[in-house]
Amino acid sequence: MRFTKSIPNMLTLGNLYCGFLSIGFAANGHFKNAAILIIIGMMLDSMDGRLARVLKADSTLGKELDSLADIVTFGIAPSFLIYYTYFYQFGLLGLAVAGLFPLFGAFRLARFNISTNKTSQKYFIGVPITAAGGILALLSLFGYLIPNIIITVIFTMLCFLMVSRIRIPSLKEVPLPKYGTIVTIFLGCLLYLIYKGTYGKFPYLIYIAAPTYIIYLLNLLVKRIKNS
Which residues cross the membrane (predicted)? Predict the structure, then answer.
């Protein structure tokens, strides 16, 4: 029973570890792998909270751990990735600008944690850091199709949108996990990368994470259909 209760926290720690590995891969020039790790972190993030509720393992420790993991995987890791792929050309100024992303993300997380209105099923206040970090990972994968100036504008917009008071649709009523539509799009990009020949450079984790998460999505969808 104790092991079962610890499963959500293990997934959260896995999310955090993906962020750490992403930073390492980015520093060594393996940018696609670094981006994929952030996407895998998104998969784990979408699963831990739901499993905690299913297993009745909700805890203050788990909630705090989730925030710490999010700031690493979706704040620090994407900022390093965007620096190594685009902002490096501006030297120390580029590093300073890239470092703004986790600052805005940390503020957004802290504001959410103390918010008394977390129960809304229709919207978030500001863009969630998970979505913002995932978008940066996506930009680094397909950024060669986009001019650098546009990537810079999107980066700046995401920073301010995270701390804005704009209401963002939560998509919780969609029969998928938290951020399900966004994660599904990223899964499609992940499968595209696999098709393009990522095997051999990142042979095992992708092929374990992607099918496992797809099975999880299908199982969740079937349960919701049966309950409707």
Answer: 20-44, 90-110, 122-139, 145-164, 176-195, 201-222
Domains of the chain: 2-227 (1.20.120.1760)
Do strands 123-125 and 167-169 pair parallel, antiparallel, or not at all (unpaired)?
A: antiparallel
DSSP for 66-80 reads HHHHHHIIIIIHHHH
Helix 129-142 and helix 100-114: axis angle, to 10°? 150
Are the C-beta atoms of residues 8 and 62 closer than 8 Å to each other? yes
Q: How far is CA 180 from CA 28, 46, 148, in A?
A: 31, 8, 28
pLDDT in tens, 48-103: 777 777 777 677 787 888 889 999 999 999 999 999 999 998 889 999 999 999 99
Phi, psi of 130, deg, nearest 5: -60, -45
